[in-house]
Design brief:
The chain is of the alpha/beta class. The protein has 14 helices and 18 strands. The chain folds into 3 domains: 110 residues, Methylthiotransferase, N-terminal domain (Rossmann fold, 3-Layer(aba) Sandwich), CATH 3.40.50; 234 residues, tm_1862 like domain (pyruvate-formate lyase- activating enzyme), CATH 3.80.30.20; 59 residues, Beta Barrel (OB fold (Dihydrolipoamide Acetyltransferase, E2P)). Helix 7 packs parallel to helix 9 and helix 13 runs parallel beside helix 14.
């Protein structure tokens, strides 16, 4: 029985898809690429923008064309928001509250004789691929009030996974050969293990979790996904004195205009954001700070956009993720007056993309001449000898090596800018 899974959207979705893949594999299913013919196709959908909705529908239609007899499964946030809509494209719709039981549901359908054959025992093609970076879910749900965001409606139940369970999963990832684990969640910075807090008499927060992972596991690199400015503390930043925590923060912003932030109902001011930015840079040398910007939020005037552009320009980001405002059903922003025309959004998007490219280039230039460890992922083309990997501050590096480097952390001297990052020279051709 061949199953193909794919992820649309955020790192949390990716982590959940990895977990589903592991469950399918352990249950005797053969994992194959979404481009292959499969008996079961599973799309972990996203609904954060109308484009994400469209991509999710397109994926489901493609799966149906690849194998009209296959079981097509839709899960994730789009499935949570629009179950009835997706029943026209998928045989089975599993919302976020049922997602962790998806494999059991599919097996139940098989036992009921719903056109599914027996699961096989063939070694998974996907699980045998090089393991470098794993995603581990630590938290889910959001109670935020951001006026543009659909997430609180599709992931409304905020909870954190127990420290013990996360520690066990990180150990398992390390034992499987992963060199890096990325901790993911809807609001990673709000992590709190209520059970541990009650038993040990203190609040087991994100800082405590990181300290436990560093002390109790031997994972070589540990990375965080997105944080909010209010979640940055001196206690948290002190953990970066060691080498295992990656020097990369994704610090959500969305706009550099105070007035726009207020209309978005973000939980911080520009001053608070700047203080968090400064704290990170002062505590961690050569840290890469990446962020987001939403252009064309309702009512965003030319002056407010220029204010935003100016703030991003002076902030010193390593990269900026740019996206236009997309009105989502049942959100306050979708009903706001002064919706921005598409052509205006596009012009502002292009200006911010140009700024993002400039920021990325400037950050990379500062690193030239240094020797930095890189987690090498794979060859860019089979038998080319050219490998691609990431520094711990999230810079894409390319280098030629006569030796296999996949899933090896090896130092490289950064020598020249590349369209997608930096070209380097391997310092030691006998990496351990």
């Amino acid at each position: 029985m061949r199953v193909a899974l794919d992820t649309l959207g955020c790192k949390l979705n990716q982590a959940e898809t990895e977990s589903l893949a592991g469950q399918f594999s352990q249950s005797g299913f053969e994992l194959v690429s979404p481009d292959d013919v499969a008996d079961i196709y599973v799309a972990n959908t996203c609904t954060v923008t109308h484009v994400a909705d469209r991509k999710s529908r397109h994926w489901l239609r493609l799966a149906r064309r690849r194998n009209p007899q296959a079981l097509i499964v839709a899960t994730g946030c789009y499935a949570q928001r629009s179950r009835q809509e997706l029943t026209q494209l998928a045989d089975l719709v599993v919302d976020n509250t049922e997602k962790e039981h998806l494999v059991e549901i599919v097996q139940g359908l098989r036992l009921e004789g719903r056109g599914l054959g027996e699961g096989g025992t063939k070694q998974s093609q996907i699980s045998a691929t090089a393991r470098t970076r794993a995603l581990t879910k630590i938290q889910d749900g959001c109670h935020g009030l951001c006026t543009y965001c659909i997430v609180p409606k599709v992931r409304p139940h905020e909870y954190s996974l127990p420290v013990s369970r996360i520690i066990d999963e990180v150990k398992q990832k390390a034992a499987l050969g992963y060199k890096e684990v990325v901790l993911t969640g809807t609001k990673v910075g709000s992590y709190k293990d209520a059970v541990l807090s009650a038993s040990e008499g203190f609040s087991a927060n994100l800082t405590d979790l990181l300290r436990r992972i560093l002390n109790d596991t031997d994972i070589e690199r540990l990375r965080l996904s997105s944080l909010q400015p209010s979640e940055i503390s001196s206690e948290l930043l002190a953990l970066w004195q060691g080498e295992r925590l990656c020097r990369h923060f994704h610090l959500a912003l969305q706009s550099g205009s105070e007035a726009v932030l207020q209309r978005m109902k973000r939980s911080y001011s520009l001053d608070e954001y700047q203080r968090a930015l400064n704290s990170i840079k002062e505590a961690i040398p050569e840290v890469a700070i990446t962020t987001d910007i939403m252009v064309g939020f309702p009512g965003e005037s030319d002056e407010e956009f220029e204010q935003s552009h100016s703030f991003y320009q002076q902030a010193g980001f390593a990269n900026i993720h740019v996206f236009p405002f997309s009105p989502r059903p049942e959100t306050a922003a979708a009903r706001m007056p002064k919706q921005i025309k598409s052509e205006v959004k596009e012009k502002r998007k292009q200006r911010m993309l140009e700024l993002s490219q400039s920021c990325r280039r400037r950050f990379c230039e500062q690193l030239l001449g240094q020797a930095i460890p890189v987690l090498w992922e794979k060859e860019t083309r089979p038998n080319s000898g050219i490998y691609s990997g990431l520094t711990n501050n999230y810079i894409r590096v390319f280098a030629h090596s006569e030796r296999p480097l996949s899933n090896v952390i090896a130092p490289v001297k950064l020598v020249e800018l590349h369209d997608q990052g930096i070209w380097g020279e391997i310092v030691n051709e006998n990496p351990g």
